TrEMBL record:
Keywords, ordered alphabetically: Iron, Iron-sulfur, Metal-binding, S-adenosyl-L-methionine
Protein name stated in the entry: Radical SAM core domain-containing protein
The Radical SAM core domain, residue ranges: 9-121
Organism of this sequence: marine sediment metagenome
An annotated Gene Ontology molecular function: catalytic activity
């Protein structure tokens, strides 16, 4: 079996509202994945070197039980990724807590991807997040810190909410790309989607087989 990735969104709560956001997340959305669901989802997902999980949505500054959700989600997985805009590095307390959570994860390799782009860079925390996280994990060889895509452009604009607006000069890249389409995307309610746009829900993860679902999605 080829290596594949399952993207998991812990919450649709975000500290920003961006027109280009493929998930339509924002401060007014407060739906979080429950700890029980995160445990069940972990049991449902395959383990091993050919399986990779990526967490999007929510971070230590937004979810009170972030550490428990992350530990449940990553438990026993060989490798994983975390997408974050890095706002939490502004406060030492939340930065320190994030570092503690990451170090507590039972995962062999972890990549932290910072969604720095021309959309986020105006706030100035992308570079700061990169530098502070690189420093925090500099002696941890299993933890990697990087910018997402080409300073975030390829990641931030792989999709967008169908009722949001993206500047016309980015319209040609504002769509789901093949890499994301090949992934299984599970939202905070446990619903599997064909792609991050959320326009084609499949069913709740507990009602289907992982491998059969993935084969159906990439046919």
């Amino acid at each position: 079996m080829s290596k594949h990735e399952t993207t998991i969104r812990l919450t649709n709560f975000c500290n920003e509202t961006c027109d280009h956001c493929m998930f339509r997340s924002g401060p007014s959305n407060k739906t979080h994945m429950t700890e029980k669901m995160s445990q069940q989802l972990n049991e449902w997902l395959p383990k091993g070197v050919d399986s990779n999980i990526s967490v999007m949505g929510g971070e230590v500054s937004l979810i009170p039980n972030y550490g428990d959700l992350m530990r449940n989600t990553f438990q026993g997985h060989y490798q994983g990724g975390i997408m974050t805009n890095g706002v939490f590095v502004k406060q030492k307390a939340t930065l320190d807590e994030f570092v503690r959570v990451i170090l507590s994860l039972d995962t062999q390799n972890i990549t932290i991807r910072i969604s720095q782009s021309q959309f986020h860079s105006k706030d100035g925390y992308g570079q700061e997040a990169f530098e502070k996280l690189k420093q925090s994990f500099k002696h941890k060889h299993r933890i990697f810190v990087q910018f997402a895509g080409d300073l975030g452009l390829n990641i931030v604009l792989v999709g967008r909410a169908y009722d949001n607006n993206v500047p016309s000069k980015y319209q040609d890249v504002a769509m789901c790309d093949n890499a994301m389409n090949d992934n299984m995307f599970v939202d905070e309610n446990g619903i599997i989607h064909w792609c991050p746009l959320g326009e084609s829900p499949y069913k709740h993860f507990s009602q289907c087989d992982y491998y059969e679902t993935r084969e159906k999605m990439i046919d």
